[in-house]
Amino acid sequence: MYRVTKEGMKNLLDIEKRLGEELINIFLEKKSSRDSGGELEHDNPSIGRLKLEEIAIIRRLKEVRGKIKSAVITDTDNEENLSKNVVTLGSLVEVEFSDGEEGKYTVQDQELIIIERRRDIISYESPLGKALLGRHKGDVVRYSVGENEFEVKIKSVK
C-alpha cells in the first residue's frame, strides 16, 4: 500500500506521462541514430548512451506505475484535521527550527522528492516527517538524526 494525496496522485500520473514521452523520444532518437551510424555500439557510440537512458527511464516508469497501482488516496481535506491544525500526509507545514531558521514543507512520500527533485517536500518516513505527523500547530517537536537531536516548532499547518 502506498499512501498518497489527491495532489500526489496527480503528480504521479503527470510523472508517468512525462516518462512515457521521454521513452518515445529515446526510441525516435535511437532510430535516427541507427539510420545514420549503424546498430552496433562500437560503430555508433550514441546507441550505448541511448540504451542506458532507456533502461533508466523504464526502471523509473515501472516504479511510478507500481506506486500508482498500489496507491491509496489519503483524504487530507478532512475538515476535522484542518480545523485542529493536525499534520497529516499532504499537509503544508511551516516550522521554526531552534536556530531561528524557518521553512515550509509539504509532508509527502520519498518517491516524489526523488522524482521531482524538490526541496520543499519532506518524506513522512524521514525523522522530521515522523515527528511532525499527528502533531498540531504550536507543538514543539524533537527528532534525531544519527547522534544529533533537533527541535522544531510548528508555526502553521494547511
Shape: elongated
Stretches with pLDDT under 50, minimum 5 residues: 79-83
Helix-strand makeup class: alpha/beta
CATH architecture annotation name of the largest domain: Roll
State the CATH class of the largest domain.
Answer: Alpha Beta
Under CATH, the homologous superfamily of the largest domain reads: Transcription elongation factor, GreA/GreB, C-terminal domain
Helix/strand order: EHHEHEEHEHEE
Described by strand count, sense and barrel closure, the largest sheet is: 5 strands, mixed
Question: What's the β-strand tally?
Answer: 7
Report the total helices.
5
* Share of residues in strands: 15-25%
Q: Order of strands in the sheet with the most strands?
A: 5-4-3-7-6
Beginning-to-end CA distance, first to last residue? 25 Å
According to CATH, the fold-level topology of the largest domain is: Chitinase A, domain 3
What is the helix fraction of residues, given as a range? 40-55%
Radius of gyration: 21 Å
The overall pLDDT, averaged over residues, is: 82
Could you say how many structural domains there are in total?
2
